[in-house]
Specification:
With about 475 residues, this protein is of the alpha+beta class. It has 14 helices and 21 strands. It folds into 3 domains: about 5-275, 2-Layer Sandwich (BirA Bifunctional Protein, domain 2), CATH 3.30.930.10; about 290-385, 3-Layer(aba) Sandwich (Rossmann fold); about 405-480, Translation Initiation Factor IF3 (2-Layer Sandwich), CATH 3.30.110.30. Bound molecules: zinc ion.
Length: about 475
């Protein structure tokens, strides 16, 4: 029995695992812990998501590259903060055949070090800057916490990582803002609501000056990190001696940034929009955007199929991904059930009455609402309904996040909200690290950081923990 949406505060994981398996999005039965497989249907969703981010990066001056998966140990160790944090999580290649390797090779946990090693050779002059690249690759992390399909993996298969180099800190800052804008557009495309927060010092990326993160809220009231943007300053360029020649003839270290998104974005897409019937996909990532289901009766079969084919051709001619389900050993009811599970945005039913009235019956996957559309107007109406559906999905998801965000200046209340998995707490904080860590202990949740997308005047407010003057507000939540 799959838990209905109203039970998701505690049963979301069961629903998620069940739906990704039955809808054939992701297969998590492979006999290595923390790795999974994209079967054909999931792969199509994944590719559609990738093409959105690729377009956004291509349009903003990033160029695609492909770096090796293997990073020699001495290179991975060059930036000391970086390796300190990743040391426990690295998978090592230590043997080649029967021979022990002299130099251990890491499976990339992320690619900053590999890229810096090459930038040392590539970047020479101020005219080489800015330098913007990205790649979509797998990364490996030996997760010791309980692994979870798509969310906590040892092999992340779809890491979209961008890396940039600049002449000044101001340019790097500007790039951080550009990256934030790119990610906002990306998540808006997928109708995924987000919170943008500057991570506290103790939770920034290893080797970064600061980290800005995108989190979303999953139906179980836990925040899921879905994207990060790091300003690395000169930390990596100093360690790797990546310098450029300034116009005045002196050399300076470059300033770098990096930002990435993993397959968690697809987990968010599924979790945030799904319902008791299965997936609900916005049309731009749906492998099939419209499914046509004939409802033939004896003597009307020919007319019904003829109209089905006419509609199929009309919608294909405007570039939609349409499928005609003409299986004759499956009832229309079973077909409805099957395509709802798969999250196909629109279903068009065509029976003898539709033929007689020159109409079709369109059913929206998100609201299950039925709309009658005239056959003559199908090319204009269907794209409109798809766009309406996507706008409604975005609006509903954003509203849900807002309704699950609570401002409080009372510690007990904060503890209660987090404990009951009601969502995100926003509360004043003094800015002191020890105080922050004891907030996390007390509420048994994590500080997501200072909101960058929220205007709160903290004048006169007191820290929720120590009662000193507040410097900022912070978001706190249970997290994945
Ligand atoms: Zn405090």
């Amino acid at each position: 029995m799959i838990p209905p949406r109203e039970k998701w505060s505690t049963k979301f994981n069961e629903w998620f695992r069940d739906v990704i398996a039955r809808a054939e999005v992701y297969d998590y039965r492979y006999p290595v812990k923390g790795v999974g497989i994209w079967p054909p249907y999931g792969m199509k969703i994944r590719n559609n998501v990738i093409s959105i981010i690729k377009k956004l990066l291509d349009e903003t001056g990033h160029e695609e590259v492909l770096f090796p998966m293997l990073i020699p140990e001495d290179i991975l160790r060059k930036e000391s903060e970086h390796i300190r944090k990743f040391e426990e999580e690295v998978f090592w290649v230590t043997y080649g055949g029967k021979r022990k390797l002299e130099r251990r090779l890491a499976l990339r946990p992320t690619s900053e070090t590999a890229i810096m090693e090459m930038w040392k050779l590539w970047i020479k002059d101020h005219t080489d800057l800015p330098f913007r690249i990205y790649q979509i690759v797998n990364i490996f992390r030996y997760e010791t916490k309980a692994t979870q399909p798509m969310i906590r993996l040892r092999e992340v298969t779809t890491f979209k990582e961008a890396h940039t180099a600049h002449a000044t800190m101001e340019d790097a800052e500007k790039q951080v803002r550009t990256a934030i804008e790119i990610y906002k557009k990306f998540f808006d495309e997928l109708c995924i609501p987000y919170m943008i927060s500057r991570r506290p010092e103790w939770d920034k990326f290893a080797g970064a000056v600061y980290t800005i993160a995108f989190d979303t809220l999953m139906p179980d009231g836990r925040a899921l990190q879905i994207g990060t943007v790091h300003n690395l300053g000169q930390n990596f360029s100093r360690a790797f001696e990546v310098t450029y020649l300034k116009p005045d003839g002196t050399h300076e270290y470059v300033y770098t940034t990096s930002y990435g998104i993993s397959e968690r974005v697809i987990a968010a897409l599924i979790g945030i929009h799904g319902d008791d019937h299965g997936l609900v996909l916005p049309y731009n990532v749906a492998p099939i955007q419209v499914v046509i289901v004939p409802i033939p009766y004896k003597e009307s079969e020919e007319e019904v199929f003829s109209l089905c084919n006419k509609v199929l051709e009309a919608l294909r001619s405007i570039g939609l991904r349409v499928h005609l389900d003409d299986r004759d050993d499956v009832t229309p009811g079973e077909k409805f059930y099957y395509w709802e599970l798969k999250g196909v945005p629109l279903r068009i039913e065509i029976g003898p009455r539709d033929v007689a009235q020159k109409c079709v019956t369109v059913s929206r996957r998100d609201t299950l609402e039925r709309i009658i559309v005239k056959v003559d107007e199908i090319k204009e109406e269907i794209p409109k309904i798809l766009e309406d559906m996507r706008n409604d999905m975005r609006r509903r998801a954003r509203k849900w996040l807002e309704e699950h965000t609570f401002f409080t200046q009372n510690l007990e209340e904060a503890v209660k909200i987090i404990e009951d998995r009601r969502g995100v707490v926003v509360t004043p904080w003094c800015g002191n690290t020890d105080c922050g860590l004891s907030i996390e202990d007390n509420v048994n949740g994590r500080i997501l950081g200072t909101p960058l997308d929220m205007d709160v005047d903290v004048k006169g407010m007191k820290c929720i923990m120590c009662n000193k003057d507040a410097k900022t507000v912070i978001r706190i939540s249970k997290t994945y």
